[in-house]
Amino acid sequence: MNGNLLLMILGGLANVALVLLVAPFCEGLLRKVTARIQSRQGPPIWQPYYDLLKLLGKEDLESGESPLMQRFAVYLSLATVLTVACLIPMGFAAPMNQAGDAVLLIYLLTLAGVCTLLAGLAAGSTYSLLGISREMMAMIALEPLFAIAIVIGAVHTGSFRLDTVLNGSVYAAGVPWSGILMLAVMLLSFQAFVQRVPFDIAEAETEIMEGALMEYSGPKLALFKYAQMAKLVIYSALFVTLFVPWGNGLTFPLGWLLFWAKVFGLVLLVTLVAATHARYRIDQALRYFAGLLAVAVGALILASHGY
Predict the structure, then answer these.
(1) Which residues contact 292 (CB under 8 A, 6 or more apart)?
(2) Which of 144, 150, 167, 251 is least surrounded, with the fewest CB atoms within 10 Å of its CB?
(3) CA torsion, points 117, 118, 120, 122, in degrees to nearest 10?
């Protein structure tokens, strides 16, 4: 028992370390490819690592209305994302599968968004309050989509165990119409989950100067940026395990390499969409999410009837 517990802890720590190492690289890849698409040279691919180190070395200034809440929101944001990393497969089986289930995963994914709301509320500036109002409206329409995808997998398999749900379970029905519908829904909404153009409405730099994060600088800003970078890796890994599971069961290192090839392929897709689309207005985004939510609810009904 103690040996199994030790392996779980070591596996969770390995996933956390992997996310912390890979997340800035994915951000650098995104910036570099975007620059190339726009016929620019762009920054070096390692620039996000330098940016984080520079911010971490700056003085920690606190200018918000509630510094204690600002600190709490920052640490909770990164901690929540890294906790999710312990619960999902990263080329291997989920290391802490027995430490939680699909319901806990849904709660943690929602909590990661709530941290942004707490951060903007603690800052208290006009721009940050405008940013969190946009974030809250988007969350209400957006967060149920991933929850429905996970619940559909649980309905098909009759289990909330993470190793069962996070293994292409959306296709487990005889005729997986619900899984195919959710695949389309998640592809069309994935940019919003990772807060990239055209759905980075809550932090639109050209309009509200990063919204909820406007009053943040130095180490706190670095940790928030790190959490946002990690979200890209986490949500990409979740998407792959739920909707593109084929080949993940191959022997090491083939299965592991194929998993990360699919993750980087999804990051490139995010980059292409972000580089070729203009930002949506909040009303446009809400209508878009409402349509996807209606399709997702239809997929859940199909799943409940075995399709």
Answers:
(1) 145, 185, 188, 189
(2) 251
(3) 160
Tokens of 119: 């951060």
Mean pLDDT over residues 100-110, rounded?
Answer: 90
Q: Exposed (0-12), middle (13-18) or buried (19+): which is 270, by Cβ within 10 Å?
A: buried
Residue 83 DSSP symbol: H
Q: Domain range holding 148? A: 2-304
Provide the phi-psi class of 168: left if phi over 0, else alpha when psi is between -120 and 50, else beta.
left
Q: Write out the two tokens for 6.
A: 């030790």
Q: What angle do CA 170, 174, 178 make, to 5 degrees?
A: 40
Query: 0.90 exceeded by the pTM?
Result: yes
Residue 59's identity, in one-letter code, is E
Question: What total of structural domains would you count in the chain?
Answer: 1
Q: In the prediction, which pLDDT does 270 show?
A: 93
C-alpha torsion angle, residues 79, 81, 87, 90 (rounded to 10): -130
